[in-house]
């Protein structure tokens, strides 16, 4: 006999009663018999058991309880030709049927109370009512134990649901904290990622700047080398210029001496010409005296001619002499006039010469002063050139040192470039790792959101139960 769920109620194996279902039997033919018993129909089922024996089963439903009952016998025994055996078997079957029916009625009457309690517990369990209620189980048989087990199961489920409720509240709070923490971590990771990206970009820009600086330093170093060569050449030219300036100073000093001698000669010539002018003036005075004498002689000759004419024949010879004297006086007068003209022209020329000599003397004096000033300037130029030459030497030395420093700076820049390149690579690696971490944090954040939603849904579901 089995219940409507297929659980054995009556079975030759006492260990299977109320503990095992017919659908769980290891013999497939018994499972098939159980399906026919629970189908609600009556009939006969023939089969071969797992030992190889031919069996026959008569099954009938119990309408009141929904249970199924079957009587199983060996076909050889059931269909023996001996009628007595058949009668005995029929009688036994009938007796068994009666006894079983009576046992069923008794069992049903005893079992109904635990079953009712068990049904109530099941209904409460299905309704989600896990509140504690007083026990109404009075039977100590298997059904009573089953009802008590169902009640204990409901109480156990109640305790579990309470724990789950508390845990869900803690889980929801933890999920919210985790969500907030992951959001903060995500923001921090994003900020770190952005900072790393900025660092990578800054490092790349620094690397480019270092490369540009290195190129500029190399160009500057080349320029310094060129300037150093030009400074050396300038120093050499400065030394040559100083030497030329010193030679020019010496030549200028010689020129100053010659100019001074020219000035002295010019002054002496001016004095001579001035004296010549004075002598010409004296000669002019003498010529004027000669001209006066000639005029008087001419006048005396004229008077003598007049007196000779008065004397007649006696005065003819005297007239000739007077005429010759007149002619000589006129010639003297003409010569005196010519001499006067010459003296006048000579005086003019002498005056011009004196003026020219004086002007030349002034120009020579001014030129002398200029040359003397030029000499001072040359000395200053020599000093400046020598100073500049020394400074150019210092500049050349400084530029040479600068070139050496430039080489050293280039070495440091190369080191900085290598370090910046490595830093850029490390920054890119850290940036990639930070991006992966940000992605992981976002996944954790999404998971925490889902967990928080699941916790809220779990709380909503648990709130439907009565604890």
From TrEMBL:
The keyword Protein biosynthesis does not apply. The keyword Transmembrane helix applies. Residues 109-162 form the HAMP domain. One of its GO terms (biological process) is signal transduction. SMART domains: HAMP (SM00304), MA (SM00283). Keywords: Membrane, Transducer, Transmembrane, Transmembrane helix. Pfam families: HAMP, MCPsignal. Residues 181-452 form the Methyl-accepting transducer domain. The chain crosses the membrane at residues 88-108. It comes from the Bacteria. GO terms for cellular component: membrane. Belongs to the methyl-accepting chemotaxis (MCP) protein family. This is Methyl-accepting chemotaxis protein.
């Amino acid at each position: 006999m089995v219940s409507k769920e297929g659980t054995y109620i009556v079975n030759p194996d006492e260990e299977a009663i109320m503990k095992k279902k017919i659908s769980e039997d290891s013999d497939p033919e018994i499972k098939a018999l159980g399906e026919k018993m629970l189908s609600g129909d009556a009939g006969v089922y023939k089969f071969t058991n797992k030992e190889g024996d031919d069996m026959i089963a008569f099954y009938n439903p119990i309408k009141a309880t929904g249970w199924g009952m079957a009587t199983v016998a060996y076909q050889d025994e059931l269909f023996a030709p001996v009628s007595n055996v058949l009668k005995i078997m029929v009688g036994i079957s009938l007796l068994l049927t009666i006894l079983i029916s009576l046992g069923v009625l008794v069992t049903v009457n005893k079992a109904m109370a635990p079953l009712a309690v068990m049904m109530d517990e099941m209904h409460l369990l299905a309704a989600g009512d896990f509140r504690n209620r007083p026990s109404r189980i009075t039977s100590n048989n298997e059904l009573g134990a089953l009802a008590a087990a169902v009640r204990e199961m409901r109480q156990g489920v109640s305790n579990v649901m309470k724990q789950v409720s508390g845990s869900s509240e803690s889980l929801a709070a933890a999920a919210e904290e985790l969500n907030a923490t992951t959001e903060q971590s995500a923001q921090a990771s994003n900020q770190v990622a952005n900072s790393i990206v900025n660092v990578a970009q800054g490092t790349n820009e620094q690397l480019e700047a270092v490369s540009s600086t290195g190129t500029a330093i190399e160009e500057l170093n080349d320029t310094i080398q060129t300037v150093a060569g030009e400074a050396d050449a300038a120093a050499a030219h400065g030394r040559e210029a100083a030497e030329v300036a010193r030679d020019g100073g010496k030549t200028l000093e010689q020129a100053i001496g010659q100019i001074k001698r020219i000035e002295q000669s010019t002054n002496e010539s001016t004095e001579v010409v001035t004296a010549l002018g004075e002598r010409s003036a004296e000669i002019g005075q003498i010529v004027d005296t000669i001209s006066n004498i000639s005029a008087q002689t001419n006048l005396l000759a004229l008077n003598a001619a007049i007196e000779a004419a008065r004397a007649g024949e006696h005065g003819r010879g005297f007239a000739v002499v007077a005429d010759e004297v007149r002619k000589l006086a006129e010639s003297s007068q003409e010569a005196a006039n010519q001499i006067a003209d010459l003296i006048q022209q000579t005086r003019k020329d002498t005056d011009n010469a004196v003026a020219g000599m004086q002007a030349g003397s002034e120009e020579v004096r001014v030129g002398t002063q200029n040359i003397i000033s030029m000499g001072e300037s040359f000395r200053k130029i020599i000093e400046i050139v020598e100073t500049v030459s020394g400074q150019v030497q210092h500049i050349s030395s400084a530029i040479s040192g600068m070139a050496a420093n430039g080489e050293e700076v280039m070495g440091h820049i190369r080191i900085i470039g290598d370090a910046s390149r490595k830093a850029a690579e490390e920054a890119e690696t850290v940036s990639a790792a930070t991006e992966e971490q940000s992605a992981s944090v976002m996944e954790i954040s999404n998971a925490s959101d889902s967990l928080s939603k699941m916790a809220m849904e779990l709380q909503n579901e648990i709130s439907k139960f009565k604890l």
